Amino acid sequence: MVIARVLVWVWVGLCPMWAWGQTTVPHEFQDGEVIEAREFNDNFEALEAAIDGIPAGPKGDKGDTGATGPSGVSGWQAVTESTIITTARYANPSSGARAFCPAGKVAIGGGWEMVHQGAADNTTWVSSIKPHKNNLFIDSGQYGWEVALVANTDVVINVLVKVTAICINAL
User: Fold this and answer.
1) Strands 77-87, 97-100: pairing kind
2) Rounded Cα distance, 94 and 18, in Å
3) Which residues are paired to 86 by β-bridges?
4) Is residue 49, in this structure, part of any structural domain at all?
């Protein structure tokens, strides 16, 4: 038993040296030496090529079929709404432009676009962009996407905003 353990340890200890002996790298470095990134990368590329060159072992037996997973996402739909937002500097952020998912669907993402408004393009800031869920008693609990803006000007401006909600069937 002791001899078997010693042989195993000798074999395990020599395998890395055997593998190391089979691989060469283009650059060798000494302790404390400043090296070039190119040389360092060359060595890693040589090691990667050596590893990639190791032949694959024999193919194993086919395993048992796994359990069926969940059905996943279904009913993907993009909903886009256009809204004019009125805002000015120091005003509370606008009530927001919103796009709502149809009943039975939830928003998983979204986006927005400010349609060209001349001077407003340079004076309007986004104050928030987020998922939105309407109050159950007001709007039937629809889910959607919302963007709110605030202007960086003393002049009240109207900005046309397109908001898109990416909706899926509720799980």
Assistant:
1) unpaired
2) 70
3) 158
4) no
Range of the domain at 155: 77-169
User: What is the C-alpha to C-alpha distance for residues 171 and 42, in angstroms, rounded to an integer?
Assistant: 50
* pTM listed for this prediction: 0.51
Residues 32-90 pLDDT 10s? 888 889 999 999 899 999 998 899 899 999 999 999 988 888 999 999 999 887 776 66
Q: Rg of the Cα trace of the chain?
A: 31
| HSE value, Cβ hemisphere, 13 Å, CA-based, for 145 | 23
116: pLDDT strictly greater than 90: no
Task: Please choose, from the candidates 87, 86, 93, the residue with its C-alpha nearest in 3D space to the C-alpha of residue 129.
Answer: 93
Tokens linked to 8: 């195993």
Cα distances from 82 to residues 66, 122, 127, 149, 167, in angstroms, run: 47, 20, 18, 14, 17
- 103 in a domain, yes or no? yes
